[in-house]
Amino acid sequence: MSLELLLWMLAAYLIAGIPVGLVVGRARGVDLREVGSGNIGATNALRAMGKAWGALVFVLDVAKAAVPVAAALHYLGPNPGGPTKVALVALAAILGHVFPIYLRFRGGKGVACAFGVFLVLAPKAALLSVIVYAQTVWLTRVSAVGSLTAALVIVVVAWVDPSVPLPYVILAAALAGLIWERHRPNLEQMFAHAREARAREAKLDRNE
Q1: Nearest CA to 67 among 206, 75, 100, 152?
Q2: What is this structure's pTM?
Q3: Sign, Cα dihedral of 51, 107, 87, 12
Q4: Most distant CA atoms of the chain, gap in Å
Q5: Are 168 and 87 in contact (CB under 8 A)?
Q6: How far apart are CA 137 and CA 150, in angstroms?
Q7: Rounded to whole angstroms, how far apart are CA atoms 169 and 204?
Q8: What whole-number distance in Å separates Cα of residue 25 and Cα of residue 10?
Q9: What are the TM regions of this chain, as residue ranges (predicted)?
Q10: How confident is the prediction along the chain (208 residues), in pLDDT tens digits per residue?
């Protein structure tokens, strides 16, 4: 791994690690870490500050990952091993958001940043994931389910699209795994609620 690539990765990590949700929240007098889910991402920002500010946090989270990746794609992509180098820069950007040095490595879940990365690297996969996300949230009313489904859609579409280099497919799979891991508390909560609902139904059946 060359010094040039390491510098690109470091720059992507530091740029994408900027906690824009926290910055926007503080400008509004809200510390996102102390409200709602405690997450600094767009979903918690939307709940705490409303649709307009939540949308702003989402756009900034997308941009802070997309910009360094787009720059890497332009400067590193045409070179030998370009896709692998760009994928590593993209991974560094996501890790910057999820584990930011500015917040003692306690950041967001990486959904918006992953969308920003693949908006640059695999636009068809990214745009289709947004459609699936919106549809899933409309059906389930649960943002986490939409995020998890969208992450899997990016992997599948990137895999079947012959124009997407293999390093980007591997990156998509790695990011999907990371996003699912970051949503593990949400999954555990959903399963707990499902078990409670089944227990209540069983109790009602016994009482009838």
Answers
A1: 75
A2: 0.86
A3: positive
A4: 72
A5: yes
A6: 10
A7: 48
A8: 26
A9: 6-24, 53-74, 86-103, 115-138, 150-180
A10: 689 999 999 999 999 999 999 999 999 988 888 888 788 888 889 889 998 999 999 999 999 999 999 999 999 988 889 999 999 999 999 999 999 999 989 888 889 999 999 999 999 999 999 999 999 999 988 888 889 999 999 999 999 999 999 999 999 999 999 999 988 887 777 777 767 767 676 666 666 6
Q: Helices in the chain by DSSP H: which ranges?
A: 3-16, 20-27, 42-49, 51-75, 82-98, 111-121, 123-140, 143-160, 166-182, 184-207
Q: How far apart are CA 97 and CA 111, in angstroms?
A: 10
Q: Is 48 helix (H, G, I), strand (E, B) or coil?
A: helix
